[in-house]
Amino acid sequence: MALNFIKKNDKHNNTNWCKLFLSALIPCILGIFTIVFTVQQQVLSQQQHEIDRQNQRDAQRETAFNAYINDISNLLLNTNHTNKTNFFLYIRTKTLTVLRSLNPERKKYIILFLYESGLLQGTGLDLSGAEFDNVELIGPYKLDGLYLPNASWKNALIVNCSLKKAVFTQSRMPNARFINSLLESASFAETILDNAYFKETSVVGINCMSASLIHANFLDAEVVQGIDFTNADLLYAQFTEKQWLGQRVLTNAHSFRYARLPNGSFGDLSPTRNLLENGDAEQKCSTVEKINWDENPKNCLNVIKFNKTSVVDMNIDNGTWGNCAFVMTTKSVRASQYIDLRPYSRLIDLDNAMFSSSAFIGCNGSTNASYVEISTHELNGNIMETAVFLNHIGNTANKNGMMHNYSIQNYRLLKYTHKARVTLGIRSSQPKNTFCYFDNVTFSMQKRFN
Asked: Any stretches that span the bilayer, and where are they (predicted)?
């Protein structure tokens, strides 16, 4: 009896627990359902709010786009454009303003509208600083001569477009894709084209001077010929052997001067090329041509013919000396010439550049008043480091002992040097009636390592 009572009691307890569980489960289910429903409603509400917001933004973009098109169209139709400067400045300001609020699709139509209106063909409209990132031009479009320098066009997709003689100088176009297009004689000078891809595209005679083409892919291009890669960065760029050598024998070959090549080495650099203009005084020897030196004071640097002076006779041989030399006669005078080193910026900025300079200089009598000074500068003109002077090389006088060879060899250029200045001068402390002579002044660039 006791055992049966216990079993009946356990059975009664289990039944109570089940009733209790079921009575608690139903509110839990209802609560969970309420929570899930509420969350779903909130998500749907947020999604609807986002859709409404996007629709509102799109309507605002459409309004801004239409207002811009109408404004510029009326300007083109109703203005005689007598003041071209203000005309193009107004269009530039309106265009840069509206571009900030438009999506890539409408930006595409801004490009097409301005081009078809004749405003983006190098006629005077400058859109430097414009942003066209992610814009896709999927043609067919004939956009020969398109003028968009110094713009941002990241992730550009250009398909079935003719861009002969287009100008993208100094633009930023990483990850650009050119497919089934013509890029003949276009300018990409100083343009960033890292990871660019060229497929079934004719890339002929384009200017890629100082461009960055790291990881660019030309393997699927139709033709790759006659490209100026001077000072370009081609690190890890991909070419077929045929493309690298030039596919068309009868047209110009590629130029790889001073460029960083795909394997990290550097292109051709002539260590004997003189970057100075008229360093040998021959340019104004028998004519009134410009002397090509900035003089301080004016007309302090003159040219003499060897056969018209008894002060100096440098006629060692015609191949070395030519017919004329420079002469200075006044105290504290200087004549300078700046050399643009930007074509060598890839070498310089990778700490792989040095220069050499030499000259024949001397003065009458025993004075040592003449000098040649080299200073290096940033692009803005700031001096990079203390100027250096050419050093005398012993036993190098010309046959009458007047002029001696001065030189500095393999001098390392600091990173970001973009200009050099060569100065001919006479020091302030010197006897009266001193004549100082300069000839065969040279400045050349070399690589520090391959």
From this structure: 20-39
DSSP structural state of residue 187: B
> Which residues belong to CATH 2.60.120.260 in the chain?
294-447
Domain 128-245 matching CATH 1.10.1200.10: the answer reads no
**What pLDDT digit, counting tens, does each position of 345-395 carry?**
999 999 999 999 999 888 876 567 789 999 999 988 899 999 999 998 865
> H or E element: which one contains 113?
helix 104-116
Of residues 267 and 309, the one with the higher pLDDT is 267
First to last CA, the chain: 106
**Up-side HSE of residue 5: CA atoms within 13 Å toward CB?**
2
Start-end ranges of CATH 2.160.20.80 in the chain? 128-245
* CATH number of 294-447, picked from 2.60.120.260, 3.20.110.10, 1.10.3860.10, 2.60.40.1190: 2.60.120.260
Give residue-wise pLDDT tens across range 142-177.
999 999 999 999 999 999 999 999 999 999 999 999
Buried b (16+ CB within 10 A) or exposed e, 279-315: bbbbbbbeeeeebebebeeeebbbbbebeeeeebebe
Residue 340 confidence class, pLDDT cut points 50, 70, 90: very high
Evaluate whether 73 touches 65 at the Cβ level (below 8 Å).
no
